[in-house]
Amino acid sequence: MTTMHTTTPSAIGQPLDRVDGRPKVTGSAHYSAEIPLPDMAYAYVVGSRIAAGRVCGIDASAATAEEGVLAVLTHENLPRIAEQPPLVPSLAGTAAPGQTYFPMQDDIVHYAGQQIALVVADTWERAQHAAHLLRFSYEETAPVTTLDQGRDRAYVPESIFGGWIPGRIERGDVEAGLRDADVRVEATYTYAANHHNPIEPSSTTAHWDGDTLLLYDSTQGVNATQMTVSRLLGVPMSRIRVIGHYAGGSFGCKAMIHAHPTLAALAAREVGRPVKLALTREQMFTSVGHREEQEQHVTLGATREGRLTAVRHHKLSPTSPFDDWAEPSLGTSSQIYACPHYEGVYRLFRANTMTPTFMRAPGEASGMFALECAMDELAHELGVDPVELRLRNYTDVDAMSGFPWSSSGLRECYERGARRFGWSGRDPRPATRREGDWLIGTGMATATYPVAPLANPQRARARLYADGTAVVQAATPDFGTGVATVMTQVAADGLGMSVERCRFENGDTDLPNIAAAVGSAGAGMISAAVHSAATALRGQLVNKAVADAGSPLHGADPVDVVVRDGVMTAGTASEAYTDLLRRNGRPDAEALGQWNPPAHDIPYGMMTFGAQFAEVAVDAELGLVRVRRMTGAFAPGRVLNAKTARSQLMGGMLWGLGQALLEANHMAPDTGRWANSSLAEYLVAVNADAPDVDIELIEVEDDIVNPLGVKGVGEIGQVGVAAAIANAVHHATGRRVRKLPITIEDLL
Ligand code: MOS
User: Fold this and answer.
1) 519 lines ligand 1 (CB under 6 A)
2) Does residue 582 sit in the same domain as residue 669?
3) What is the pTM (predicted TM-score) of this model?
4) Res. 2: pLDDT tops 50
5) Residue 336 CA to chain centroid, in angstroms?
6) The domain spanning residue 662 has which CATH number?
7) Cα dihedral 630→631→634→639 (10° resolution)
């Protein structure tokens, strides 16, 4: 924690406006698909119309005869990849392919929309037109698509989530725990598949210069793109540079590196010109992963007083024919409540789908829906207030590892959230409050999100120029969360300068390697490296001044020197950085900062906590659900920027509303195609759905997670919201809806 006190925070925490706000609204921010390159060619992807079988014939004659068509690439002529890296999450600092099946290496079709051809032409329109002239013949087999088809063929995988999480998690003896229970609650919860749909669809522009490849990619991790493409193409890392200055949202679908960046590079090499490959909105539904449909079965055992004796949490979900992937929905139920006996089991079945992927609060959002609805059912059964039930099962230690939380704040989240929301005095009886046609109810849930256990050294570079401006650099992209803004603040405080004189530069593999913007880890990881680089540079300048006979600070003890607005002061003596550099004839000064995250096995549980409250009105006749207000109380450690943090949390809470009431995609059982493939059909919450969202930030200090004690706010806002809303619907109507989204049909 010593590093924390060497900074006097003045910029950190302030509600600074986004540093990239103006370029974004004026259009001077260039996204990956907007990079103009001379002699650019355009690639259009063609997806399979069938979900299972083989491509047994391709007639490309009409397409290749079209003017401007440069290449038609299919499994018959696309160059083979060098090596398929294993599926490991992009958090791990290794290659992170979205799945281990690379398209167009053979004639097999595993899922609808799988890339089976790539048409390259001198304009995008010509490529698209020629693509529609391709004729494919298929040998089709019946697809596996639904939970009901998969139930009997399900297996327990050794591990999921790229090998990070075991397929079975146990402690104690769950059967004994359930036997000893006074009360048991058992229920099945289902959750429809979700698709991310960031406003900017994925795109890559590939440019070869000899044997050196430059990629402009819309990604959460430029290093992840670099490492993945390097392995797939067999091109050394040192010959691949990836730039991603801006990304228009992502939410997990740009965390793993799907096939299109590599396809763009292969196409560009083939035609000898730069190639831009932009996915269409429709292709975003079949090319970059999704949150899998799932069914969760929860059994809780408790004493009369409401103390949990056992938690059993099973999940069934479809995965691709080649990878064991499920989002880790059972993590939080194993950790967050005091309970001696636990059993979590993932069951998967192979279906005709691409490998699912990370999607905002990947696992926590869906797992918490099941757990926190079951807790509400238990509270109802016992006649204990839902907040009180959570407090009775509060734990100071991670219930799975037994290690104390590095920091918590969860009790305060319940208490202050409840006070703000006006929870006390709630009549627990369902269907008793009515306002005209509307039945009114309230519900709550716990929110948690793990502090991601990243292991790689985090690096950043700080450079101060003699003109008094500074730039701090790290490779990470900012996909819209505000990374560039908050890191400017961290850099300014670390250097002892004003934010106006500091600039954060990012989104380029030529800059120091650092975590991708994934897993709510960006703020903690990147701030650690930026803080370390900035304070290293400040230390270097202070040491130089006190050793310099020409400096007014000569002979001062470096620990007595404070720096504000670029001026070093010790007692009555002071000197500006710029004067020090100029007097010494130096154009600039530079330092590299490195921070090594705590090892995975440190004896602490690391988790961010919060509590969600919601009030709904349900039209008794029509089944309409309106969320009238929501309160979230969160303890995310140090808040780097009050405005961007709130906007992340508010966005998360509103997304939770969408999960509760709107978001769903279903596969047509006969064709294996997604029912929704546009923003007109795939429903998300809009302003008219958005109620008042009230957010309370609870301060907790954390000396363990990273130097500034930042636990992150990217995903926790979404966790628990759907459960709070479903619980409120029960309170309003007396009806338990155990599926998401909750639709009108469920309440008629
Ligand atoms: Mo997060 S699912 O890495 O956007």
Assistant:
1) yes
2) no
3) 0.96
4) no
5) 21
6) 3.30.365.10
7) 90
